[in-house]
Amino acid sequence: MSVHEQFADDLSLYALGALQGEERLSVEKHLKDCSDCRHELVRLQGDLALLAFSAGGPRPPARSRERLIAAIAREPRRTAVHLMKRKRWWIALQWAAAAATVTVILLLLRQNTDLRQHVASLDANFTGQREQLLQAKELIATLTSADAVHFTLVAAKAPPQPQGKAIYLPSTGTLVFLASNLPELPPQKTYELWLIPTSGAPIPAGLFRPDTHGSATVIKPPLPTGVEAKTFAITVEPESGSAAPTSTPIMVGIEG
């Protein structure tokens, strides 16, 4: 379709004053640059004038009437075609919007599912760690409780012997010491635990006095990190403790 054919259908409506808005502005802009269409508009306006005078004057030429009617007759078909095109475009836009909405909903559902699974995994991991922490606290509470009942299994009819268990981690300097069946101490005396390194002087590892059952614990005394232990030993020291052993050890550890 040429440019003149595109605007030819609108010229008759423009001559009748039936064009409005952007369509009218588009025709007027084209008329400024197109002499052929301006000439055609003048002819249409002349035909309309002849029709107007025909009501009270001479009958206009049949050629003018036929040309105007033919020009007007073309307009409904163009409008219908435009309406159908607009309708098809609107339907296509609605389908595209619906497809986009479905896609977004599917993405949100998938993200929601992944998020729920991640939360469930974190919750299960947290629950497992919490149970382990509770078990560790329960174990420590049992080992350190004054109400706990301690039993030492020995040979029949043999008196229970003093025992001690040291658990030591050199990389962190963490020590847990458990003792049982310790004899009572004289007044103003205390037991002192010593870390005997592979080289160097003994290192104080904590003071303790046993309870009425002869049990005692030392949990995480202040020790330097990275010290390799050869063994542990217990001596009886003054109540305030000593910087170095002042008596012969009454108990010495054996690794294993």
What does this molecule look like?
By secondary structure, the chain is an alpha+beta fold. It folds into 2 domains: 3-97; 163-252, Sandwich (Immunoglobulin-like), CATH 2.60.40. It is built from 4 helices and 7 strands; from the N terminus they run H-H-H-H-E-E-E-E-E-E-E. The strands form 2 sheets. Strands 4-3-6-7 form a 4-stranded antiparallel beta sheet, with no helix packed on it. Strands 1-2-5 form a 3-stranded antiparallel beta sheet, with no helix packed on it. Helix 1 (3-16) packs across helix 4 (62-144). It is rod-shaped. The chain starts with a helix and ends with a strand. The model is unreliable at 76-81 (pLDDT under 50).
Describe, in short, the structure shown.
This protein is of the alpha+beta class.
Write the layout of secondary structure elements.
Blueprint: H1 3-16, H2 21-33, H3 35-54, H4 62-144, E1 163-169, E2 174-180, E3 189-197, E4 203-208, E5 216-219, E6 229-238, E7 251-252
Antiparallel strand pairs: 1-2, 2-5, 3-4, 3-6, 6-7
Helix pairs in contact: 1-2, 1-3, 1-4, 2-3, 3-4
